[in-house]
Design a protein that fits this description.
39% strand; mainly beta; zinc; single chain; 14 strands; binds glutathione; lactoylglutathione lyase activity; 4 helices; 2,3-Dihydroxybiphenyl 1,2-Dioxygenase, domain 1; lyase; metal ion binding
Length: 246
């Protein structure tokens, strides 16, 4: 019988512990060039709330937390503004954040009529499928996918990352972070495969969408984002992990 890393325990037992826990994804942490500009876009266009803000002058940065509900129950975006830095390289490894909305056509109209955001992909069925989506980049260029979906407790529903080796990444998120593979979909006509990874169902919580583009084994990571935080164990142990690309 295979054994796990905890002395003498079978692998099945060692891997059982994450399932007993209330794990969830907490924050995505990334850098922006103008905090007020991003807060205006996320609140006025996307409908998020500014949850809190903290300035750390001794380290010359300010954080702002935004999301659709309180941080103790909802995923949040943790923006970092470094004094004097107004531009970052987002890289190609980051794909998008996704917002679930009951009427993507209406949301896209709200975004188009605002001065702070735009739509770069008009609402309509996803290529190769039927779900209605649209794309709206934020002022720094971080992409937001708008997904038409019924009411959900977590509208901030996906973080999409591109990976160079899908099975290896799936194993990492399963074994190291206790996530489950929720579904996998191959879209051969557009030459990519996606794997949804998370701690609960896709319509109830934020999930990681891993995208593998056929034949692409490496992505430029840029310098704009740092980490996604998850909560492990019942007491708050924040496990910071770097995006696992290849
Ligand atoms: N080559 C794409 C593969 C992933 C992909 O195409 N995803 C779908 C959403 S699941 C998409 O963006 N479709 C574009 C569209 O329907 O216009 C990428 O790396 O972003």
């Amino acid at each position: 019988m295979a054994t796990g890393s905890e002395a003498g325990k079978p692998a099945e037992v060692v891997l059982e512990w994450p399932k007993q826990d209330k794990k969830r994804m907490l924050h995505a942490v990334y850098r922006v060039g103008d905090l007020d500009r991003t807060i205006k876009c996320y609140t006025e266009c996307f409908g998020m709330k500014l949850l809190r803000k903290r300035d750390v002058p001794e380290e010359k940065y300010t954080n702002a937390f935004l999301g659709f509900g309180p941080e103790d129950s909802n995923f949040a975006l943790e923006l970092t503004y470094n004094y004097g830095v107004d531009k970052y390289d987002i890289g190609a490894g980051f794909g998008h954040f996704a917002i679930a909305h009951e009427d993507v056509y209406k949301l896209a109209e709200t975004i188009k009529s605002s001065s702070c955001c735009k739509i770069t992909r008009e609402p309509g069925p996803v290529k190769g499928g039927s779900t209605v989506i649209a794309f709206a980049p934020d002022p720094d260029g971080y992409m937001f996918e708008l997904i038409q979906r019924g009411p959900t407790p977590e509208p901030l529903c996906q973080v999409m990352l591109r990976v160079g080796e899908l099975d290896r990444s799936i194993m990492f998120y399963e074994k190291a972070l206790g996530m489950k593979l929720l579904r996998k979909k191959d879209v051969p006509q557009y030459k990519y495969t996606i794997a949804m990874m998370g701690y609960a169902e896709e319509d109830k919580t934020t999930v990681l969408e891993l995208t593998y583009n056929y034949g692409v084994t490496e992505y430029n990571k840029g310098n704009a984002y740092a980490q996604v935080l998850t909560r492990f164990f019942l007491h708050y142990f924040l496990f910071r992990f770097w995006h696992f690309l290849s």
